[in-house]
Structure formats: structure tokens, C-alpha cells
Amino acid sequence: TWTIVPALILVVVTFLSIPSWSKVKTRIPESDLHIRITGKQFNWEVTYPGPDGKFDTADDLTLDNEVHVPVGKPVVLHLRAKDVIHSVFIPTARFKQDAVPGHEILQWIQVTKPGKYEIPCAELCGFGHSGMKGYLFVHTPEEYQQWVKEKWPS
Predict the structure, then answer these.
(1) Does residue 15 lie within any of the structural domains?
(2) β-pairing, 75-81 with 34-40?
(3) Running along the chain, 154 residues long, what does each successive block of 10 average in pLDDT?
(4) Are 138 and 108 within 8 A, CB to CB?
(5) Is 21 within the bounds of a domain?
(6) Which residues, including other chains, have CB under 8 Å from residue 151's CB and lie 6 or more apart?
(7) Based on the structure, what is the number of domains in the chain?
């Protein structure tokens, strides 16, 4: 009988947390910044749609292991994996999500502090797993606009 009360508390807390969990995991905010992150043994392939805002067109920019975002702005992430399961882990953004081959998973982040942060793979993905890490560069709005101008000169 001593397990009944803790079990009931757990059930109540679980049901009370469902709206918050749903808000974080299923509602993607409106954003004009979308980034595709593809895990492959043993790096992150990061693709930015060009000025047309569409992936898989001639003006896309693809970088290895570099994610550039402006501070304080919601960013929609399109997560994929080419070979095995990888896990995108961005502790600064309180974010961790598996990337599964054959699926595109939409999630979002909003980082509140400028800086350079590691993006390790948090899923054992093979012999070179320990060296699989990228970097999240969080820029001020001015720095981010400068970075965009350098990558897509008008």
C-alpha cells in the first residue's frame, strides 16, 4: 500500500505536465529562419536555404559542423540522419533530439545568450563518435546580418 500514494502523485504530475510538454514538443513557432542539420558519420552537415527560403535549390549554403543563429530568435531545425541514428545535443538551448535515417524531424530552439557552444552527438554512432561535434555560433542581430551578407552577397 505504500506504493499507491507515490504512484498516484506520479500519475497526477504526469497529466498536469502534458500541456507544457505539448507546447514545447509539438508547436513549432513561426520563424523565417530554418536550418537543416543532417547527422552522418562523423560530422554535422548544416544546410541553410538561400534567399529564396527553400531547401534543395542552387542558392543553399552547406557547412560542416557550423550552426549560425541570431540571439533571441526562434529557429526551426529540420533534423535528419544519413546513415545511423545521431542525437543533436545543444545544452545551452536545453535541446536534445535524435535524428533518424529516413525521417525529417522538426524542432526549434531559441538561444538567449551570444557565444560559441558545442554540439556533440549524444548517440553512440560508430567508431568515430567521440570526435563528432559541431559548434553553435549565437550572434547578436548585427553580427548575424553581417554573416548572412558575407555568405549571400547581393
Answers:
(1) no
(2) parallel
(3) 89 89 77 96 95 92 96 97 95 93 95 96 88 95 95 81
(4) no
(5) no
(6) 48, 61
(7) 1
